[in-house]
Each structure stands twice: as structure tokens, then as C-alpha cells.
Specification:
Blueprint lengths: L12 H9 L28 E9 L2 E6 L5 E5 L3 E6 L4 E6 L12 E6 L3 H4 L1 E9 L5 E10 L7 E11 L11 E6 L5 E5 L17 E5 L21 E4 L3 E7 L5 E6 L5 E5 L36 E3 L5 E6 L12 E5 L4 E8 L2 E9 L4 E6 L5 E5 L4 E8 L1
Parallel strand pairs: 5-9
Antiparallel strand pairs: 1-24, 2-3, 3-4, 4-5, 6-7, 7-8, 8-9, 10-11, 11-12, 12-13, 14-15, 15-16, 16-17, 18-19, 19-20, 20-21, 22-23, 23-24
Length: 391
């Protein structure tokens, strides 16, 4: 669920990829304090209050979003976009996706309808785009979804409205999650591309959360608008690899992001704040070099909670339905290395893990259906689309 209305220098690629995709064993989160104090553990819960039913399978699915009327958009990282009908379990291809730079963590990413989709038919999607000299970067584009015919549908006149600057070598940490705020602003998570320092460099929009108008222009009230250039796009900075981006029921923006070796985070995102990476983190570098904890530098915004060992958060949803009343207002996180559905309780500007449900497979995304059911996408080849209903 993407809105409150509709409803994550290069060491080595292989090393950083492990940081993002493998993670550690399932351990419960503790309030962000220090690496030493965030290691309490518990087994994932096997007694589940839901029944999981398989509806379809996709090849490396990355994102999904419901359209008005109940159809589901599903993206595959290799560059395919589908419209899935839950009533008859049929998938139809949507053509018109530009060529994506597939490889590493790159490819087709998020897909989100405009809040006024029923009027303008606009779809927003992110993907990795190739540049010169083996460089790549994330982009966000929008296009109109045309009417379906027998064989499928298409996106007409795709238009890129945002790009990561600069394009760099490597295939990780694109982030490129998309969320619309209740007032219709477009938010984009921009990963630091495993380059560390750009997260603090205002000449780059990497390692930032971006706020734009729905046409890609920069709102005049952005916190760094007076600086011009890509700095004007920035809403917050000091981020690593943001793979969850969602608004809660109060209209507040939250993210979850993968830490380095330890220190996965969930953050309340505040206009203009600096979240400290790579200067501070509740994790350490993979080569053993320590990173100072957040509590050593209070000028940086500390996470609402962090995980060490990591859960590898892939997505973020604030549940607002009635099918699972105990979860109303909770943050639901898909876990990759943890292979779990993680339920987080929010208390003001703090958070704590409440429950973790063992799903047996890496969970790429969690989405809320129009009827309040929950839908999960498994990661990887032949990943299942699962519908969760109360027992």
C-alpha cells in the first residue's frame, strides 16, 4: 500500500549484495540504542492467524499495487509488467515498459497508480536505466494505461520524470520505491548505490528521499529548494537502501531500509532531517570496520527501531483494513533473509517489533487488498502471489 488512501565508496558488489539480500537469522527488534543492545532473539511464530492461498506465480516479482476495481499490477524485475485479475486468476501482459538495465539488484522496480487514476489513467513505475561506460541509475517514469484488448494492454507515451544523479557503476541499492502522500505529492526513495558518501552529498540525489509534484517538478516548499539543482528535490538525507516507503493513518511518512552488517531500520521521515548514513549506523562495515552508533551523534535522526541481526526488509505497509483488526495501524514488513511477515507496533515516533510470522520463503512485498485481505509476493524465480485471509 503506497498511500494512506490506497493502501526499503563500494566495498565489493558481492559483499554488498549479501548485505541486502542474505541478511541474518530471525531475531526480534529492540529500540535503537547500540549494536550491543539490539541482539535479543526469538523464534518466528509458526501459529498463524491467517490462511495463505496461492493465486499465481511470477518470475522475480518486485512490486504490486491494486487498481480501483480490484485488478492487481505486478512487476517482474526482468522488465515485464502484468495486470492480474484475482477473480479469475488470469494475468495479462502490459506492453510499453522501456528497456531496463537488468542485473544485480536492478531491473523493473515499483509500480503505483496515480491517486486520481480513475480520471487520468496514469501509472508510475521505476526501473534501472543504463548509462555510458557501464553506469546505471534508477529512474521513475509515468504513462497512461490504455484499455485492455484480448491479449493485454499497453502503456502509452512513457515519460521519465526523475533520474538518480549521477549514474554510477555497480548493480545495487537502487531503492526506487514510490509513494504518494495524502496531498498528492510524489515521494521516491533513492539508494546510495553502495557508494556510501553520496548519502551526505547534496550535489547527488542518491541516499535521499525525494519529494516532487506528480509531474516531476520540484515543490517550492521542499526543505532545500533554495539550493537548486538536485538538492531541491531532497526531502531527507543520510539513507542507505530504502526498500519500504509508506504513509501511516496520520499522514506521516515512514521508511524501512537495509543496514550494513546489522542495523536494519524503520524511520519516521521528517522534512529536512539527516538520518546519518554512512557517518552513523547501528550496524558496521562488512570488512569489520566499526561505524559509530546513532547515540554517539544525536544531531542525526535515529531510527524508530533497528534490527541486529537483520531482517532484510523489502517493503512497508500500514494496515487499515478490517479483516485483521488486531493489526490496524500496525506497520507490516516483508522480510527477505528472515523469510517472514513482520508486524511492528507504532507508538508516537517510536516503534517495536510485535510479532514475526514464519512464511518459509523470502517475502518481496506486502500489499493490502480493497477488501482488507493481505497479499504477499515471494521473491525469486517462480515466486508465489499469496492471499492471506483470517482463519
Amino acid at each position: 500500500m503506497r498511500t494512506s488512501c490506497q493502501m526499503l565508496g563500494l566495498l565489493t558488489f558481492s559483499l554488498a549484495l549479501a548485505a541486502c539480500q542474505n541478511g541474518g537469522p530471525a531475531n526480534v527488534a529492540t529500540p535503537a540504542a547500540s549494536k550491543a543492545s539490539s541482539t535479543a532473539s526469538t523464534d518466528a511464530v509458526d501459529t498463524q492467524p491467517f490462511q495463505a492461498t496461492e493465486f499465481a506465480r511470477f518470475n522475480e516479482p518486485w512490486a504490486m499495487s491494486f487498481l480501483p476495481g480490484g485488478a492487481l499490477l505486478v512487476s517482474e524485475r526482468g522488465g515485464k509488467l502484468f495486470m492480474f485479475d484475482p477473480t479469475n486468476k488470469q494475468s495479462r501482459i502490459i506492453s510499453g515498459i522501456p528497456k531496463v538495465a537488468y542485473g544485480g539488484q536492478g531491473g523493473l522496480g515499483d509500480v503505483v497508480p496515480h491517486p486520481n487514476f480513475e480520471q487520468n489513467r496514469l501509472i508510475y513505475f521505476s526501473y534501472a536505466e543504463a548509462g555510458d561506460d557501464n553506469t546505471r541509475g534508477a529512474v521513475v517514469a509515468r504513462a497512461s494505461l490504455t484499455s485492455f484488448k484480448a491479449g493485454g494492454g499497453s502503456l502509452s507515451t512513457p515519460e521519465v520524470i526523475w533520474r538518480q544523479v549521477p549514474k554510477v557503476e555497480g548493480g545495487g541499492h537502487y531503492s526506487h520505491r514510490i509513494a504518494f502522500s495524502p496531498d498528492g505529492k510524489l515521494f521516491i526513495s533513492s539508494g546510495e548505490r553502495q557508494k556510501f558518501d553520496p548519502a551526505q552529498d547534496m550535489k547527488s540525489n542518491m541516499g535521499k528521499i525525494i519529494r516532487l509534484n506528480d509531474d516531476g517538478s520540484v515543490p517550492a516548499d521542499n526543505p532545500f529548494a533554495s539550493q537548486g539543482g538536485v538538492a531541491a528535490q531532497v526531502w531527507s538525507l543520510g539513507h542507505r537502501n530504502v526498500l519500504g516507503l509508506a504513509f501511516d493513518g496520520q499522514g506521516r511518512l515512514w521508511d524501512n531500509e537495509m543496514g550494513p552488517k546489522g542495523g536494519d531500520e524503520i524511520n519516521l521521515i521528517v522534512k529536512g532531517d539527516n538520518y546519518g548514513y554512512p557517518i552513523v549506523s547501528n550496524g558496521d562495515h562488512y570488512d569489520g570496520r566499526p561505524i559509530p552508533d546513532h547515540d554517539t551523534a544525536p544531531q542525526y535522526h535515529a531510527p524508530a527501531t533497528s534490527w541486529t541481526p537483520v531482517i532484510s526488509p523489502s517493503s512497508l505497509l500500514f494496515y487499515s483494513g478490517t479483516q485483521f483488526p488486531a493489526w490496524q495501524g500496525r506497520a507490516l514488513i516483508g522480510g527477505l533473509s528472515s523469510k517472514a511477515l513482520v508486524v511492528v507496533q507504532i507508538d508516537g515516533d517510536s516503534a517495536r517489533e510485535e510479532t514475526r510470522y514464519n512464511m518459509g520463503e523470502r517475502i518481496r512485498e506486502v500489499e493490502q487488498g480493497p477488501d482488507g485481505t493481505l497479499w504477499l509476493l515471494e521473491d525469486g524465480d517462480n515466486g508465489r502471489l499469496l492471499k492471506l485471509t483470517p482463519r
